[in-house]
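Ligand: FE2/S2 (inorganic) cluster. Inputs:
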Amino acid sequence: MSHQTSQPKRSHEPVFWGLFGAGGMLTAFLTPVMILITGILIPLGIIDSDALSYERVHGFATSWYGAAILLVLIALPLWHTLHRIFHGLHDIGVHRGRDWQQVICYGFAFAVSVFCFTLLIQML
Amino acid sequence: MQPHSSKRKPYQRELPVDWWLKHAFYTKYMIREGTSIAITIYSCILAWGLLRLSQGEQAWQGWLEALQHPIAILFHVLALGLALYHTITWFDLAPKAADIWLKGKKLEDKVIVMAHYVGFALATIAALIIITY
Amino acid sequence: MTNSTIDIDILRYRPEQDNAPFVQTYRIPYDEEMSMLEALQYIKDEVDGTLSFRWSCRMAICGSCGMMIDGVPKLGCKAFLRDYYPNKIKLEPLANFPIERDLVVVMDDFITKLESIKPYIIPAEEKSLEQGEYIQTPEQMAKYKQFSMCINCGLCYAACPQYALNTEFTGPAALALLARYNRDSRDAGSAERMAIVNAEEGVWGCTFVGYCSKVCPKGVDPAAAIQLFKVESAKDYLIGMFKPE
Ligand code: SF4
Ligand code: FES
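Predicted complex:
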């Protein structure tokens, strides 16, 4: 078969979409209860703040598995949300400088991930 | 090419910038996408908490106290609502990304959605038990 | 029975005399049996013969009568006055397409997109007539059947903000049609078509708004086709990393 129209170019979107999907899944299942605990129940004293005492959280964060869990819980949602923000900018009509928007959006998710990773490694 | 006598003159309508306010379906889509802003802020609050944790007990205590500020509480209530909206819309659309066939029949959407909600309930309960344990 | 009437606003555009579309209101006798298409035919026959619109089958099969009814893409022959009465109704040509004249839009881009995805069976090996037909079980047919129900009406393109923002996007119906062939057990053209799927203008132009599936008059689910292709395309990407062409 030889109706070769110019071969369409493969998009690299699968990389970002994969992270978006993983982050979105995590966010859908766990973010509500995380917000409920850290943002509402503990600050209001409904759950005793001992649940997030320094010893407890520090002990968790300095175990290798605790560090891994915290990194995923904090950083992965950002790969989901910044992906949406990047595409949302296009939706609301910010069409200029898409390249820079992309660098800033995913760069932000990357920077916070590295930030958390470094902190956790230092504490280990 | 059109012969020069053609009266054709296709009219291109402009998409209004606020197209997503013109129809409820689009507005809901934008709210769904907009939940990402609240969740981004929440992740930053947690990242900040991690920084405070690394700075020692007092700093950590300061972070916990900051979360008691009325504005912080208000934000988290709002963020909880938006996060739940994300959850609902995510589960709603989940069947579209699933192509599971059993005995020559496609697994029903309802079953897939329900399975997600069961998982959600279990995860939520588990998290609450672990934290209060 | 009653002598009630109904008002219909129609967005008109006559290229030989207008520079921009304008709204014209028609008042016609109300009949609860009447479809939007019949209302238009009444107007054309009894009120204003200059009004242009497309139609053929009058039974949701040909796909020619798509239009915006109160801002929602619908088939004129499948929408009824009774669902809007006594309110005024607003009819506009299908959104996201250039207006040719009145309710008639230019669908060239849509047709090009449909043609671009190789909408025909590409068999693994050509069989001669004597060798008989390509056999398929009902189960194999079930895999693609809903995607084969499309009548090319274009409602899903009128519903798609991503197509509105960037007409390079291959769009819902064409990608659903692509799924129809890639999911067909008699077809062996998947690899060729995946190149279209994998492109930025392929499935990656979609942000999963999902309105396309909602407005489709034939129960096709283009959003699902696209979403499943995103999974496929991601797999294809991974394979491509280890096996560069
Ligand atoms: S997928 Fe549905 S809405 Fe889109 S062109 Fe086909 S029949 Fe029309
Ligand atoms: S006239 Fe054929 S689909 Fe409406």
